[in-house]
Predict the structure.
Amino acid sequence: MYRRLKRYVDTIRETTDFVPRAAIVLGSGLGGYGERIQVEEEIPYSRLEGFPVSTVAGHQGRFLFGRVKGVPVVLMQGRVHYYEGYDMQEVVLPIRLMGMLGARTLLLTNAAGGINLDFEPGDLMMITDQISSFVPSPLRGTNIEELGTRFPDMSQVYDRGLMEKLREAARRERVSLREGVYAQLSGPNYETPAEIRMLRTLGADAVGMSTACEATVARHMGMEICGVSCITNMAAGILDSPLDHQEVQETADRVKDQFERLVTSFIGSLA
């Protein structure tokens, strides 16, 4: 795996020597953020032989290298998910690659279902901790010693300093920002009401099908991590209505302007 990652780094370096300060994973509702930044280089996933490609509508497949308020960033425009049939090592491969390209800060974004009864669709939630026990660990198997230790500490996955910067960005942009614990399940089916009650008992405030595994490998690499969930729907059993992906996309689109302002202000604070 490490040799494969090095090969991808070498391929990208044949096109650009751009070194990002931060990496941003664009979740549902933020896919168009790439058009808002000063792009210097674009690398389609198709240029990287054997690179995993998302099959989900709204997830493009490319890396964008550019600047947000002068801060050099790499955007991952199109994540892959475990439910698409990829091995977990493939799911997190783009995160590792962005880290090897130089990114030391990782901002993860996603669409999530609200478990906390105080939440409403359209809320933005800063991730303060995570529950990833319901999906395979991406660190399972032979450890990649070049990237990190065999048994990484997970007592503070999401960086306290970055969380404070995100709070300050929310205040500057007058964006309401919730805080809570994110749980990752495998998908693609939505959760049952019983599973949501279980997750609430465990302390989860939101649930989705990505992110936690990505944060795990980023933590393994020593990256500083921050995460934001867009609460696009209330989880199963809370409201008397079925869940569907169209609702997720519509809610994400409705709040994308404030989501983009929050991300821009936060990245600018890294300068």
The beta strands are 22-25, 38-44, 62-68, 71-77, 105-114, 124-131, 177-184, 206-208, 224-234.
